[in-house]
Amino acid sequence: MSARGPAVDRLLALDGLPALAVPAGEADRARELAARHGLVREHGVDLADPLITRVERFAAERDRPAVADRTRSLSYAELAVQARRLAALLEGAGVEPGTVVGVGGGRCAAVVAAFLAIELVGALYVPADETWPAGRVRDVLDQAGASVLVAVDEGGDAPALLEGAAAAGCRVLRAADAAGLEPWAGEPRLPGLDRPRYVLFTSGSTGRPKGAVVEHQGMVNHLWAKIVDLGLTGDDAVAFTAPLGFDISIWQMLSPLLVGGRVEVVGDGVAHDPVAFARAVDERGITVVELVPTMVRHLLDDLPGGPESGLAGLRWMIATGEELPAELARRWLAAMPHARLLNAYGPTECSDDVTHHTVTAGDLDLLRLPIGTPVVNARLHVLRECGDGTWTACDVGETGELFVGGVAVGRGYLGDGERTREAFYRDPFGPSPTGRLYRTGDAVRLLPAGAGGEDRPTLQYLGRVDRQVKISGVRMELGEIEAVLQRHPGVRAAAVVAHEYPAR
After folding, report:
1. What's the pLDDT tens digit per position in 345-386?
2. What PROSITE patterns does UniProt report for this protein, alphabetically (predicted)?
């Protein structure tokens, strides 16, 4: 175990959060507006069922392919055995409930098994991507208080990964070393729905990343949100394309396993080549893909013979990570009428996406596409700050800042009470499963029913209210870049701005 103690001991308690200033009577009005405009979506989800339990259930009922990468394919039974062997490796290394386990390397089947193993022993997952420099690996593992790092690459570990782990005082375990172990025979250690399940590090304005902690209930709810809204079944194959440090990687590698579907791991060499990627989608029977709009544009531009020459089996294209332009949506709908286009929005701090919107031709007359309506069990509020520091709820047509409540809201930033108090509040609009409210920093407008063909009000994203930007889907704080530049002895002061060039 890390000398710094269990990660849960370094999280801010609910009573340590500030209260959102809401005038008397305004909380009732805000609740009424949210309910009237469809910003609260209740849906029954079994949040207590461990992922490994469902994997083993499918293995026993009718074994089938579960996850495949470029070197191998694992059935549900093989995935469950590998997860339990990795759990035995972790327990032998002294991993206990509440501690943080790093998983380092590239996307592969072993990452999925490692996540399930970490769930089994009741630890927290924190990824370290193989492309990160050693300093980033060190910062993430050190801030997380990771006791061990599971290296998943069989063909040799990235030197920066090992260097960063050593600098963080993190013991390295190789996933391949679990092959000869007896599978761990215990029951999954999930004593409560509010147990933290993973930590993902996002950009921070101080020059150091900040670790957003997501609870078990928030994670599982989001996995089911994707299943419900995409209609995922055992016949689906989801492309696992996201870097390990990107929040969408969680649902891409886990949601299909809840319904008996397949996870198809796509490496960077293929994922970054539109022609090779389209070929992989067709050859591997992939039905659901999630990409940043920039990559969607390349896919439409570069397919030989046009988009109609490939992607015949695709059911859904999900656009995420950056704003989806209406012009790009128009091209997709025209070229790929058989594959529905989903505009997804959500912060890492709230278990990933909190809104979904299926784009239709009716949306294309809007200057900016809607980001949609809440995913299952999300509670959204559009609020405007008054001159006296209090907040009031916005009605249809008004612009405000988006706040997220409900089961999706995470626990805050690991070991960083100051930044947690800047973004998380006690929810005055409860009752809520978490009691927390997250301030997104995003300006939105609630469009009236009928806008874009929707039969109910829908949210429209208008931009950031602070200096955070997204570049190729990666969230960045300009202040973080400035802080890093100013560490150099030859730099006295630095200012960073983002300039948007027109699409070619």
Report:
1. 999 999 999 999 999 999 999 989 999 999 999 999 999 999
2. AMP_BINDING (PS00455)
